[in-house]
Amino acid sequence: MTGPQSSSLPETSPGLSDRYDPSVLEERWQQTWEQQDLYATQAPEPEQRAFYALSMFPYPSGSLHMGHVRNYVITDVIARAQRMRGDAVLHPMGWDAFGLPAENAAIERGVDPGVWTDRNIEQMRDQLGRLGLSIDWSREQATCHEDYYRWTQWLFLELHQSGLAYQKEATVNWDPVDQTVLANEQVDSEGRSWRSGALVEQKNLKQWFLKITQYADALLDDLELLSGWPERVRTMQANWIGRSIGAEIDFQVEGHEQATITVFTTRADTLFGVSYVVLAPEHPLVDALTSADQRDSVAAFRDLVDALTNDERTAEDRPKRGVAIGAEAVNPANGQKVPIWIADYVLADYGTGAVMGVPAHDERDFRFARSYELPVHRVIKMDGANEHLNDGEAWTGPGSLINSGPFDGQSNDQARVAITDHGGREGWARAKRQYRLRDWLISRQRYWGCPIPIIHCPDCGAQPVPRDQLPVALPKNINLEGRGGSPLAGLDDWVNVSCPSCGKPARRETDTMDTFMCSSWYFLRFADPSNTDLPFDAEAVRRWLPVQQYVGGIEHAILHLLYSRFFTKALKDRGLIPINEPFERLLTQGMVQGVTYRNPRSGRYVAPAQVVDQGNPIDPEDGGELEVLFEKMSKSKHNGVDPAFVIDRYGADTARMFILFKAPPEKDLEWDDADVEGQFRFLQRLWRLVDSVRSTCTADQLLRNGTASIPAELSETDTTIRRAVHVAIQAVGEDLSGDFQFNTAISELMKLSNSLSGKVLEASRSVQIEAMGALIRLLAPFAPHLAEEFWLRLGGEGSVHEQPWPLHDPEALVQDIVELVIQVKGKVRGTIQVPANCDKDKLEELALASDVAQRWLEGKPPRRVIVVPGKLVNLVPS
Ligand code: ANZ
Ligand code: ZN
Fold first, then answer.
1. Neighbours of 32 (CB within 10 A)
2. Distance 152 CA to ligand 2 centre (A)
3. Of ligand 1's atoms, which has the minimum distance to the CA of residue 351?
4. Tens of pLDDT along 127-160?
5. How many other C-beta atoms can be found within 10 angstroms of the C-beta atom of residue 189?
6. Which of 139, 857, 870, 874 could form a disulfide with 529 if both were Cys (CB 3.0 to 4.6 A apart)?
7. Mean pLDDT along residues 174-180
């Protein structure tokens, strides 16, 4: 018989047993949320804070990996928590959808890159759906769709109009595997392509660049505003921009009236110590200045250097090599003649491509001078030291000037300025800032990218495509087989157009844009995703941006994050947006590492299924023992764990809980099946806890909004439970602010669950409601499906995800105070007041901090401490 009270308890879904079965439950909630449009973005009310939570959008490879899962789950927890805290949250998702894999798939398998990409997007969207993310899918963007790239082109034209996009002939990085040029940021320190891993070659080509160097100072100086970014990322950007403050100094060349060699130096104070001048082998003056008898050795040396990468040329541990070219330069400070050399370590594209050699005060110059028996003139005296201390090596530290004419005795910092000023008055020196940053090369000779909206006219030059003709659509069904050069160049119908200015026959630009262009502004589009008149409306951008919390991989520390900052600043200067920096806070999540079996003899990685287990892991191939490591999950190392597999087996909530619990978000995370299992068991315990409460619950005792008015008189159980609940509310709240310590937040939830299990049933009904209402709401950002199910099962109203975040009641935290006796060697010496329920460690800590202890121990640690909880602490001095 069904009584009237229990019949009004909420229905759970048909077929749902009383066992925790995530597969049924999660799918049902995902469908319900979708039907309810639960995660639709709500425009912020006046007074309401707008909170933009964003994950770096993925390349649609077609399959979701654990790195993605970690990234999106972290952002999701933040978005959900902020929503419950009352913010208007924007949490969108999109696809960085142009790029080479689609084109290569097209070449290998004959599928259309657009079709291939859309299919992958579809698949990945489904996979993401299974994670239970609170994403507003109505704002989805794919950079390869016309309604997006039309605006990428429009923004390119904006930059072009401001003179920030230009074409020039340049020596560029050529990737021989992908058959395209690369930006400097896309070549690693070993000279390899970031994508294909091929050794990059140098080629001379006419290419499109963006003048990011115009923003070098702003990009560097504004790093100081980014206090919500990891220090490491800011340092990487600062080093990449590489500002040097120094001077240019002109040297005349003996016997060549017209020739001036300008060097860049950060040490103008050492000018009197110059013993030679060095040009980069590629320096334009080398040919004119080389004497007849040095022609052959100069030519031979240049060939040698041609074969080296920049890194090989400047590596610390390589000998520096060079040849004299048979000419002399005149030191403008003292008229001294010094030989001119070319050397491998002087780079053509840094500074002026020429340096003054000061062996006494620069290590590299010192070694060079030693190798070639060039003189060493000391001009900086190490203060307070015997002069010949720096005979055997270069002195690169501070000091005062010697052998420097009128500048003798000045500190080298003073002299650096004084010598530059003096040269300035005489016309041979200028203060100068130098940057490592180069303009961003954005043209690519590939098909699957955003076409550059330019038409080349023999008479008018490079003309922008009129904006009302955008997008310049990528032609479909083209033959991608012929490698080398842009595939678009072969399409006569597409290429041949008339000039938008004069109407004469002209040709379309056939290069496409670097995909980093497409991702440099997508965060702006999400603020105004369906605007058909503009890429975004400034008001919408003002409403949502800067992104409050950006989450993504450290691999973009320079690339995407620097480009996006540049775009933001350039668009602000164009008056298009009111913000100066795109991302207020940045979290770079650590890697997900899998158990990896490696054969230390062959270096071969062995798939776990092949490992022979004989107590130790054995390689079936050579019968020898394998090393067990944790490394970033990857196909080649056979150490990946498929998210779908984990979700099938345990559900998304367990996967989320494990990922959040196992390591703080910015640290690497070692995958561990046993810990996944552990989280699953924790959720099962919660299930039983909720079930136990539900079984005693009557219609007038439903959770409703999860709060209850607490009577003044409480039992001891009530007080204990309330304290545990409010301690958890406070701790989880703190862990979800600032540093995002999700792992400790989950530990707090576990503690709370332990405190409630069994005991909560003994509490009064209002305390039960308060406790369960808080537990479920605190769980909601982490395990959203299960929390929603619990909310329903206990008669909560509406969705748990729309409930306000619980706030702790300081009064519930107040603990009873008891008196504790402090003894020294068994004699009572005083008492202190301590909270009831302190554990032994806490009591010892409080006793040691007491006045009595200070007085009797005289600052020395005691030999022994005996704690009798609730009674006394006995200190035995040493
Ligand atoms: C004379 C000198 C004396 C220097 C001394 C240093 C110490 P950063 O800080 O990296 O900008 N340099 C300039 N252009 C170069 C090029 N194209 N290739 C290789 N080296 C180059 O370093 C600036 C210093 O690097 C410059 O200051 C110059 O050497 C060298 F005691 O000039 B210095
Ligand atoms: Zn024209």
1. 15
2. 24
3. 14
4. 999 999 999 999 999 999 999 999 999 999 999 9
5. 8
6. 139
7. 85
Among 778, 770, 766, which residue's Cα sits nearest to residue 809? 770
Q: Which ligand is nearest to the CA of 497?
A: 2
Average pLDDT for 423-436? 96
Q: What is the DSSP letter of 203?
A: E
Mean pLDDT over each residue of the chain, to the nearest integer:
92
Nearest residue to 248 via CA among 261, 265, 260, 272: 265
Return d(Cα 68, Cα 656) in angstroms, integer: 12
pLDDT at 17: 54
Positive/negative CA dihedral, 837, 840, 842, 848 = positive
Kindly give the distance from the C-alpha atom of residue 207 to the centroid of ligand 2, in angstroms, as a whole number.
20
Tokens of 112: 């259309």
Q: How far apart are CA 477 and CA 107, in angstroms?
A: 12
Give the ligand 1 atom nearest the CA of 266: 27
Residue 4 has pLDDT above 90, yes or no: no
CB 694 within 8 A of CB 740: no
Ligand with the closest atom to the CA of 433: 1
| Spatial distance between the Cα atoms of 635 and 300, rounded to a whole number of angstroms | 46
Chain-centroid distance of CA 344 in Å reads: 35
Torsion of CA 744, 748, 749, 754, to 10 degrees: 140
Q: Of all protein residues, whose CA lies closest to atom 29 belonging to ligand 1? A: 265
Q: What is the predicted pLDDT for the residue at 7?
A: 38
Ligand 1 pocket (Cβ < 6 Å) reads 244, 264-267, 270, 280, 345-347, 350-351, 353, 355-356, 358, 361-362, 434
Q: List the structure tokens of 172.
A: 């560029």
Question: For strand 549-553 and strand 50-55, is the pairing parallel, antiparallel, or unpaired?
Answer: parallel
pLDDT band at 15 (very low <50, low <70, confident <90, very high): very low
> Residue 663: which of 708, 630, 636, 622 has the closest Cα?
630
Report the pLDDT value the prediction gives residue 1, as an integer from 0 to 100.
36
Task: Give the list of residues 6+ apart from residue 314 with CB closer than 8 angstroms, or none.
Answer: 345, 347
Cβ–Cβ contacts within 10 Å for residue 255, how many? 10
Q: What are phi and psi of 823, to 5 degrees?
A: -110, 150
Distances (CA, A) of 118 to 103, 114, 136, 609, 623: 13, 6, 19, 33, 46
Q: What 3-state DSSP class applies to 591?
A: coil
Q: Whose CA is nearest to atom 20 of ligand 1?
A: 346
HSE-CB of 459 using CA atoms within 13 angstroms: 8
